[in-house]
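Deliverable D5.2: sample structural annotation.
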Amino acid sequence: MSQLDPAWPRPCLMVNPVRHYAWGAGGRAALIPQLLGRPAEPGRPYAELWIGAHPSAPSELETSAGRVPLDRAVAQAPEPLLGSRVRHRFAGAFPFLLKVLDAARALSIQAHPNRRQAERLRRRDPDHYPDPNHKPELAVALDGVRALAGFRRWREIEHGLERVPDLVAFLGGSAVGDGAAEWSAPGSMEPQARIRHLVTALLDRVDRCPDRFGAALDAAAAGLQARAAELDANERLFLELRHGHPGPDPGLVFALWLNLVELDSGQGLFIDAGVPHAYLVGRLVECMAASDNVVRVGLTEKHKDAAALLEILRFEGGHPAVLTPGSNPKRMIYLSPAREFELTRHRLRPGDVLGRRQPDGPVVILVLSGTTHVTWNEARRQENLTVPGGRSVLIPAATTSFRLTAQTDAQIFRVEVPT
């Protein structure tokens, strides 16, 4: 349809696109087909469900006149959908993207640029970096989730290097055959500079000597397997990933150098610009600024860009903070520095009611399980909409007041734009 129907804006159910990336879960156990109420196609992975207005895969709104893509709706009616505050803050763009992820195997080792870096990458390579926007993201585990996030402390990395001498030999100048200096950073360097020096040496040598790097990985794996009983969690992960990535993949070394994080259901992890990370396995809800800029370096067949990664990486060592539910089991607000979104998880009992938290702006509610009912007043009469499990609803800014009532036990995620 080319125009929104006259009754809009009003709360609308959303039809959300699926991304079939290779790392996604498939078969009867796949979460996303269950949410959509349809069987999984044999042999097809279901990796991500996108809920938002990103132009590469926008959600559609179910209106009385038919379906309309959310990005088109924003372009046609920015003020009633976004509200004045959000429209001016984000130049008329829908500011956030909500996703459901179901990872059966590891995603790529990656990082996201900040806004200034994103603009520069887009000018240089718009095919791979189409968005002039940053991508801070917040992930919440739906079940047990394993992830890599941020560099380990330097002393942990250094201790690990002592246990893989073949990789250390590769990182030295003799592995390149050009008389280059050893990887070891000068003793006067701060830990952050040491990590930068080490990562730069790795990516430089991998680019110049991929065959020797592959041999070094094989030798490191053999050495670790020989003392399997005394390995730490990162070393066990290295061996696990090596089976699925037998080539000269630098992502395997990042698996030794990044923090291994295990999230229980309800725990969250905020990933800011420049933080290297990879989700390894598990189901999660993820909210982010509306961008698809991803700089990858390993564990993927997609485009890899070591030079861009070195430009944007943050090399600070230390364990990331895990966001843990507090004493209220019915509501968890996942606070973050992001200006684009505020994510809240609710566990509702029949009859529980939710309304707006923020005074204006769009609201997206994902009903993960259970059945809910949304009511609002329009033209002096009450309107209503049933939102069952697996569906999401958009509440436009023009709907200044609404009530979401749980008909059954329900788990929902709500996204608003913080003031």
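Annotation notes: Confidence is low (pLDDT under 50) at residues 173-182. Residues 191-208 form the longest helix (18 residues).
The annotation will be released with the project's public dataset once the embargo ends.
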